[in-house]
What does this fold into?
Amino acid sequence: IAGKWMARKRVVRRRLPSGFRVCCTKKVIETEIGRKVRQAEKAGMIVRKNQPELEKMRAAGLLVYKVLSTLKSMVAEGVSTYDLEVAAEKMITEGGARAAFKGYPNPSAGSKFPFVLCVSVNDEIVHGMPSQKKILKSGDIVSIDTGVQLNGYYGDSAITVPVGQISEEAQRLIDVTRESLELAIDKMRPGNRLFDVCGTVERHVTANGFSVVREFVGHGIGTKMHEEPQVPNYIDRRNENPRLKEGMVLAIEPMVNAGAPGSRVRADKWTAVTEDGKYSAHFEHTVAVTAEGPWVLTRP
Ligand code: MG
Ligand code: MG
It folds into this structure.
C-alpha cells in the first residue's frame, strides 16, 4: 500500500521527546521501539534503525521476497487474482508473520483493506483488490504489492509481471519502472539527500517518455508500515529534503504511467487507476542506508 501524498509544512525546530539521543541533524533520531517512536513520528522525525533492528527488518523483507517470487511463478493466463491472494496468505501465515495490508485503514474510504495483496492489473496503478472474477489473460500486466509484519518490523515490496505475450510498449513500461527503482536504490548512501532518490526515478521515467504518479508516494518504514519521510517519485522543492544517514530505511516505489500522470480512485475507494486508461507499472523495495551502501532488505 503506497502512501497518499500529503502536503506538509516544513518542519521547524521542535522539542524532542525526552530520552532520545539526537544525532547530527535535528530531525534524525536513534530509534527506540514503542511510544517514543510514535512521539517522534508525530514530531515529523525520521527514525533510524540500529543493526539488530535492521536484521529483523531483513527477516520480514526476505519473507516478502519469498511470497512475491512464488506469486510471480504462478502468474499465467487463466489464473485469477484471488488465486494469488490465497497462496500469499498461506505463505505469510506459515512464515509466522502478520499480513501488513489486511485490515489497513483508509480514512477516506472509511474501511479497512480486506486482503493481504494489492493486485493491480493494466490501467490500475495501485491498491487493486484480488477477485475471483478477475482472470488474467495474455497481454495483461499485473502489479503485485504486499507487506508483512514479523517480530514487530515491516517489509514491503512490489513487482509487475507480464501475462503471456504483452505489447512492446507494455514491456518497455515494466523495464523502465524497474530500472528507475534500481537507479534510485543506488542513491541510498550516507551523505546523499532524499531528492537524489526522488529525482533519479523522475529523470529516468520522463527521459523514456513515461510519467510518474504524483498522488501516491513511497515512505519510511520500520515498526510502522508508513513512517517519515514521504518518498515521492519526483522532486517538489516545497517538500522536505533530508540528508540520508545510516540506519534510515525507505520503501521506494515508483508508480509509472505509460501515458499522462493523472490518476483517480474508483468507487471502491481503494483502486487507483490512470485517468487516460493507459497501463501503469509498479515496483518497490524496502532499502536501508548503510555505511557499505544500499542494503535491499526485500531480496536475497
Ligand atoms: Mg508495497
Ligand atoms: Mg509501500
About this structure: Confidence is low (pLDDT under 50) at residues 11-32. The first strand starts at residue 3 and ends at 4. Helices lie at 35-42, 51-74, 81-94, 168-185, 194-207. Residues 2, 156, 219, 251, 253, 284 surround magnesium ion (ligand 2) (CB under 6 Å).
